[in-house]
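Side project, low priority. Logging it here so it doesn't get lost.
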Amino acid sequence: MNSHRPHPVPGFIPGLDLSRILYEEAVRPVLDRAYPGLPYAAARVGSGSEVLGFDTPRSADHEWGPRLNLFLAPDEAAEHGAELRRLLAERLPKHVRGWPTHFRHHDPEAPVGQMELTDGAVDHRVSVDDVGGWLRTQLGVATEPTVRDWLAMPQQRLAEVTGGAVFHDGLGTLDAARARLVWYPDQVWRYLLACQWQRISQEEAFVGRCAEVGDTLGSAVVAGRLVRDLMRLCLLLGRTYAPYGKWLGTAFGRLAIADELTPSLAGAPAATEYAERERHLCDAYECVAALQNASGLAEPVDPTCRPYHDRPFQVLYAERFAKALAATVTDRELRGLPLTGGVDQWADSTDFLGLNGPRRATVDALARATEPADPAT
């Protein structure tokens, strides 16, 4: 019977470093002794703030610690997976650099593991999978993605699969899979950029209209949505997958453009007067528009703001950039789609984005809805 006991909190080690130590000092010796010659890959990928390099001491309160992903060939995973997990539970050290390898579920209703010392076998966080099966679970696809596959994969999931670190790839398949997914194909990228500009175009005039009728809160809320869209647009231009909301600002802050843009992006929703909010937004629009022009992906578009028709609001008319980019998309399947984009450009429900089948089904339904009607039906 295990006896759980508290442990002194050791000094913080970034999670990827801790995972590397776990592999090199604990897991690899077990594999070498029990399964000599067995081809495998060892990595720290998937969910967890450490995979994106965003972990801090606060991360240690749940599902953070000595964790590792092991990958075997499909037949080897089926044959040895359960036994290997059991063997590791018996032979792993009780802690690595002071961090327990045992994870206890304190609440059966919320099965989140927290590190805790134990005298018995450890409930470890070393998973055993085959690469293809793991990719299907994470992304819904294990082979070369099609256009619709790319549109159905959330950027957070792509960041989790391509982030982190691979410590050993004796299979050769994990590194290859990550290389295929490291960034969008050129045509998909251009389409997603066009769709992101289109999102901005749909609401940029609402900031002033809300303010005009005295809805200060509504104006700030729309400004905040536009700021979020501009941040995601900058990440797209920077060839960086956008993480979900908790880490969006952190990821944006690592871009080269962040220092220049942050004062305007922070100032827009915080402004209490419309004139100040409009000024901050226009500064941000023009900065990102210049960044888009400098990318060389489409014909340059005048990056200056101008009045919204005959109304007293300054806007960019972001649809001009959407059209310029859409004109560079030559892929027939993408050209047949409306400028709605990838799944996380039009949906932000965490529960929905975690469902592989419904995500892909929705993308397929959207594509079918825009196909020309069959005259025979």
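Brief comment: DSSP finds 17 helices and ten strands in the chain.
Revisit when time allows.
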